[in-house]
């Protein structure tokens, strides 16, 4: 056994050795005693075979109790493409942090030293429960063997997100799943599942 806390939503892999994650989550003292990035990288390299690490230092969603799990913010589509949450409303509390995250994503390079193809996912309108905003996000999609399930929230952006996913994953069936009840628990589709490789 290893003395290391690692939730499924805290790392994202491109399947070719690159890990995408957030420093707010994996280096948080409430998980791993405040391990440094290099210490975390050593553990992930040893136990998961990771070769490259992309650390996001900005980006969060209000109501998220995971210290910025990557599966709510940015996801690999393939080894050259990352889909990420973008906020266009300058008056939204997320605007500055997500803009800083986008700028950092633009600095990342693929294993071939090329910029990633970045695809922006829309923000939902704010959803509240008991006066607190919930972390609704389209980035919390779930890929299965033959389909992509994506969360919907009775929001005009649901259809926009669906069209984006159809373009990104043309070989998969794109299935919307209403997650208004699920998001009240603090997470959405990817958060509520345990993935097992085919």
| Low-pLDDT windows of residues | none
CATH architecture: 5-stranded Propeller
Give helix % range.
10-25%
Strand order of the largest sheet: 1-2-3
Strand content: 15-25%
Topology:
Blueprint: E1 11-13, E2 18-22, H1 23-26, H2 29-32, H3 37-48, E3 52-56, E4 74-78, E5 81-85, H4 95-107, E6 117-121, E7 128-129, E8 132-133, E9 142-143, E10 147-152, H5 157-168, E11 173-178, H6 180-183
Parallel strand pairs: 2-3, 5-6, 10-11
Antiparallel strand pairs: 1-2, 4-5, 7-8, 9-10
Summarize this structure briefly.
The protein is α/β, with parallel strands linked by helices.
Folded structure, characterized:
The chain has 198 residues and is an alpha/beta fold. The protein has a single domain, classed as L-arginine/glycine Amidinotransferase, Chain A (5-stranded Propeller), CATH 3.75.10.10. Helix content is 25%, strand content 23%. The chain is built from six helices and eleven strands. The model has no long low-confidence stretch (mean pLDDT 93).
């Amino acid at each position: 056994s290893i003395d290391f806390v690692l939730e499924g939503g805290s790392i994202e892999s491109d399947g070719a050795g690159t890990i995408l994650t957030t420093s707010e989550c994996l280096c948080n003292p409430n998980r791993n005693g405040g391990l440094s990035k290099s210490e975390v990288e050593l553990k992930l390299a040893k136990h998961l075979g990771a070769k490259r690490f992309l650390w996001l230092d900005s980006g969060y969603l209000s109501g998220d109790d995971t210290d910025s799990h990557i599966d709510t913010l940015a996801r690999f589509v393939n080894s050259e493409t990352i889909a990420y949450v973008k906020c266009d409303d300058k008056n939204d509390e997320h605007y500055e942090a997500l803009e800083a995250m986008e700028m950092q994503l633009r600095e990342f390079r693929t294993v071939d030293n090329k910029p990633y193809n970045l695809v922006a996912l829309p923000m939902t309108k704010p959803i509240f429960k008991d006066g607190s905003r919930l972390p609704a996000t389209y980035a919390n999609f779930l890929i299965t063997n033959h389909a992509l399930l994506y969360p919907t929230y009775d929001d005009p952006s649901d259809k926009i997100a669906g069209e984006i996913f159809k373009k990104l994953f043309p070989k998969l069936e794109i299935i919307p799943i209403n997650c208004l009840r699920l998001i009240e628990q603090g997470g959405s589709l990817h958060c509520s599942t345990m993935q097992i490789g085919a």
